[in-house]
Automatic annotation (TrEMBL):
Belongs to the peptidase S1C family. The keyword Repeat applies. This is 2-alkenal reductase. SMART domains: PDZ. GO terms for biological process: proteolysis. CDD domains: cpPDZ1_DegP-like. PANTHER family: PEPTIDASE S12, PROTEASE DO-LIKE 8, CHLOROPLASTIC. It comes from the Bacteria. Substrate binds at H124, D154, G227, N228, S229.
Length: 383
């Protein structure tokens, strides 16, 4: 028994000695490599950041900026003659002087509306220009030619020739604009380079501003400055909703009241100019006035809906159709006339040559007249 106990004691001592050596020299042999002991970290690529952070319109700007161009124009004009040159004695001693022409430059913006190189801009940007140069967002420059102009909406269509496919903007469709919608104005203010400003739709259907014949402006507080004219007004997704045209300002800079031509009007003008080189509108040759409450009461009307015929041009379609000064125009081809602006737009939308029905109120009675619509005369270019 004593011998067995001695053997057991020696075996335990040897085992403890072996464990001590292993724990000192190879401790990993004594530990079980279980998940609790070894943590494996599986790394995956960092999830991409959202394309647009909350409150950011970077995607809309990135989508529309390549389609907005800078337009540089130049025209020649006679140098102003010094008053002393009108004196024959002065000219006798000093000659007639230098009567050479000088060139003036202008700048604005435009929007590429098709990959074929058609560009929408304002008429006042390119009016009377001898040379037009278009600079793309990537720095490429091209000479442009005028396809057609429409001074009555202040729109013009240019075209540049290139072998590459151009980045055309997307036209907004679907849901109509609402006051409060966010919009971005893109252009080249003061020639500093392409600039994006943000604002909201402040009002819709602005008219009677005295800017153009046909007015139905989008009003926005997005900063629009000289050089922005002809640039893009886009919505939160980067689609075109208007062409920036004018500002109300006492200083020449933005005061938060800018105006843009709605894309519906711009598209109609664009399609007509590309198809025929001009915009054709109906015309009857009348002078119209707004019906004020006082005038409505004088004519025995219940409300101010309609338009007062203040004058009729001699030999015009209106005169041949029997319309007289003092008539109250109530509807055109079954569409009610609410005001002079509405009447002007209705008649302009009629194709020349069409015989339209005009319902008027005369001496307390309603009369229906047939008028052969004429073609609206082209306004004289401003010199």
């Amino acid at each position: 028994m004593r011998r067995l106990w001695l053997i057991f004691a020696q075996a335990v001592t040897a085992s403890v000695a072996v464990l001590f050596v292993l724990n000192t020299l190879k401790p990993e042999w004594l530990h079980d490599a279980t998940p609790d002991a070894v943590i494996s970290i599986f790394e995956t690529p960092r999830a991409p950041a959202p394309s647009t952070a909350p409150g950011s319109y970077a995607d809309a700007a990135e989508r529309s900026m390549p389609a907005v161009v800078h337009i540089f124009t130049s025209k020649s004009s006679r140098a102003q003659r010094h008053p002393l040159m009108n004196d024959p004695l002065f000219r006798h001693f000093f000659g007639d002087g230098n009567n050479e022409s000088q060139r003036s430059a202008g700048l604005g913006s435009g929007v590429i509306v098709s990959p074929e190189g058609y560009i929408l801009t304002n008429n006042h940007v390119i009016e009377a220009a001898d040379e037009i140069e278009v600079s793309l967002n990537d720095g490429r420059k091209y000479a442009a030619r005028v396809i057609g102009r429409d001074p009555e909406t202040d729109l013009a269509v240019l075209r540049i020739q290139t072998d590459t496919v151009l980045p055309a903007i997307t036209f907004a469709t679907g849901e109509p604009l609402r006051v409060g919608d966010v919009v971005l104005a893109i252009g080249n203010p003061f020639g500093v380079g392409q600039t994006v400003t943000m604002g909201i739709i402040s009002a819709l259907g602005r008219s009677q501003l005295g800017i153009n014949t046909f007015e139905n402006y989008i009003q926005t507080d997005a900063a629009i400055n000289p050089g922005n004219s002809g640039g893009a007004l886009v919505d939160g997704s980067g689609s075109l909703v208007g062409i920036n045209t004018a500002i109300y300002s006492r200083s020449g800079g933005s005061l938060g009241i800018g105006f843009a031509i709605p894309v519906s009007i711009a598209r109609d003008v664009l399609e007509q100019i590309i198809a025929s080189g001009e915009v054709v509108r109906g015309w009857v040759g009348v002078e119209i006035r707004e019906l004020t409450p006082e005038l409505a009461n004088t004519f025995g009307l219940r409300n101010t809906a309609g338009a007062l015929i203040a004058g009729v041009l001699r030999g015009s379609p209106a005169e041949r159709g029997g319309i007289r000064p003092g008539d109250i125009l109530l509807d055109v081809d079954g569409r009610s006339v609410q005001d002079p602006k509405g009447m002007l737009e209705m008649v302009a939308a009629l194709p020349p040559g069409k015989t339209a029905s005009f319902r008027v109120r005369r001496s307390g009675e309603e009369i229906e007249l047939k008028v052969a619509v004429g073609r609206r005369p082209t306004p004289q270019a401003v010199r």
